[in-house]
Structure formats: structure tokens, C-alpha cells
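Submission sheet (multi-component)
Chains listed below:
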Amino acid sequence: MARKKNSSADVTGPRIRAAALRLFARHGYAAVSMRQIATEVGVQAGTLYLYTPDKQSLLFDLMQQHMQDLLAELAILPPATTPLADLENFTRFHIRFHQARSDAVFISYMELRNLEPANFDRIEALRRDYEAHLVTILARGKAAHVFELPDTKLATFAVIAMLTGVNTWFREGGRLSLDAVEEIYWQMVRKAVGA
Amino acid sequence: MARKKNSSADVTGPRIRAAALRLFARHGYAAVSMRQIATEVGVQAGTLYLYTPDKQSLLFDLMQQHMQDLLAELAILPPATTPLADLENFTRFHIRFHQARSDAVFISYMELRNLEPANFDRIEALRRDYEAHLVTILARGKAAHVFELPDTKLATFAVIAMLTGVNTWFREGGRLSLDAVEEIYWQMVRKAVGA
DNA sequence: GTCTATATCAGGATAGAC
DNA sequence: GTCTATCCTGATATAGAC
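Outcome: structure written.
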């Protein structure tokens, strides 16, 4: 079926989401007005409502998309043959993926409290899926006696917190390349789990 | 000099700050109105302005107080005789202190972007003072060859992120006591720094 | 020291012209 | 598909009564 020639709907929608992502990350969901988002995109405030039913949906869609992307990318990671290699893959993947989408990461961790309960539950479920992946890796390594872990669940929390923390300070063009950071963190993770 | 008999100024001020702390932590600075704070305290909105010049000062004061408390408590930690003992003290202190003030911690990490630039700089300086303390411990241990660290600064970030992460999941009365959590995290920190 | 009342402004969202 | 205009609500902050 032919598309309308001058339709900009396909470009305006994504631009609205991109602007909202940027602004929510910089200033926080509650502090950003629909007018600001519209100005950033170069349309009037009313126009936004052609693309989203309301502000809350805009936030939820951004977070859901981020978590789904995260899980999708994780799912296509080449499988490793040992728990140690699995953990290394996960570590490097987590740092790289999160660094490439720092705005979305920021929002997904900071704006949970601005989600309506039903939306919150759905995002939390996705986050738990992601955690579960690391839990599995650590549990396998522990069972195989290659990891020494007092508590698998806490090790999962610790590793994820540690890796996500990279986003708070890493800046492209700084003292260390992302490759170097990956390597250093991997060494710390490896040691932390007793491998 | 005699105080006024029925003055409740000394109690209203702290109650306002306590309410603001709670509400900012739950819903975020931008999402909380002065009316909500006033309602929580049981006064009218206008009354708040007898105790704070504006909403921004209220946020800044809470964050500054938190950071100053943190540094003050850190300063009176009994000094240890080895870098390893120093690191253990720091680890346990960080977990305990942050757990006891989870609202203030939450705000101090999440609401930085809602500070006016001058206020932001002052809070950041305090945060760097705190980090510097851990940097020193790690650098000493590295110099004494009791820690094996590819990068002292990154290890500092990693340890603080890991420890602060406890606040995102720990709940009193859960599976593990705070003592147990402290112990498990200490083991992970110890290994991560190669000790 | 606190309240009531209000000035002033900006927010989310909608209706209808083009 | 976008804009203009607007409704309604609720925000911060202040003035002045009690």
C-alpha cells in the first residue's frame, strides 16, 4: 500500500520519543513539561498528543523499549562454554550496552517511582528477567566450583550495581577508553566472584 | 536569654525538613509540592516560608546536611592499623550509614540534577571528599602490595557503587540481617581489590 | 507563629481551524 | 498533520489578618 508522500508521522513520532528521552534524563520526568518536549521537536504541544495518549505513556514506552532492547540484545549474545566466559561476556555486554544508551539507563533507574503502579510492575518484571540471567550464570559457576560466592543473589546485585555505576562517571574521550574500562571492571568482577 | 514559652519554631523547622526528606525521596523533588509538605507537617503552605526561603534551599539544605553528616561520621571512625582493616571499616561503615538514612541517600544521588549550579558544585565537592577517603585507603594498600588494583580510581567507583547498591534492595526483616549483608559484601570487596 | 486569601504563572490536555 | 487558542487545575510565593 502506498504511503502518503509528505507524511512526517514516521519521523515525528521517533523524534518526540528521542526528545523526551533526552529531556527526562537531563531534568527528570516530573520537571519536564510537554511544552518543552514540543519545543525541542519543533512542534506545538498539542501535536504531541497525536503520538502519545499522555505524558505517562511516553515515559512508560521509553522504559519498556529500553528494557526490551536490553533483553533482546542479551538473548543474542553468543553462548559461552564455561561459566567464567559467560560472566565475562555478560560483564562486557552490560558495560557496553549501558554506555551506549546512558539516557535510557538513567531514566530506567531513576524514574521508576514516577510510573503508575501497573506500569511499574511491568518494568520491574523485565528488570528481574535481566537479573535472572546473571543469577543463572553465577549459580552455574558456583555449582561447578569455579566461583566462590557466599550468596548468589547478593553477588548478582553487587555486580550489576558495580557495572551500572560506570555510567555515572564514564565520558568518551576521558582518561580511559571504554575497552580499557571493560577490561578493568572485568578483572574486578572476576576477582569479586572468587574466580 | 529566656526562650518564648510556646514557641514551636524549634520543632516545626525540623519537622518540615523531615517531611520534605520523606516526600522528596518517595516522589522526587520536582513532583512534590510545597502544599504536600505543608499538609504532611500539618501547617499551611505559607508557613513553610518562615523556615526556608524557597523550595530549592530546602533541597539543598537536606543534601548538604546529609553529606556533612556522612563526612563527620567517617572522620570519627576509629583508625585502623592496616589498609585491609581500613577498607573493612570503610565498607561496613558505608553500608551501615547509608542503610540508616536511605531517604537522604536516595535524594543525594537522585536529585543532583535539580540543584542550581552553585548548589550542585558544593554538594559535588563534598561527595568528592568522601570518595577521596576511599581513594587514599586503596592507594595505601596498593603501595603496600596488599591490594592488587589495575586502577585505584576505578576501584573506588566500583566499590562505592557496589556498596551503595545495597540500598536499592535491602529491607529490614528480609532474608538477611544487615550484619550478614555487611559480611557478605565485605568478602566481595576484599576479593575485588585482590586482598 | 500560623492561617486565610490571593497574585501570578505554568502545567497537562483538548477543540477546532487550516 | 500541525497550529492556535483555550480550559482547568495546581504550582510557588507573598500579604496581611489573627
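Remark: Residues 1-7 of chain B have pLDDT under 50 and may be disordered.
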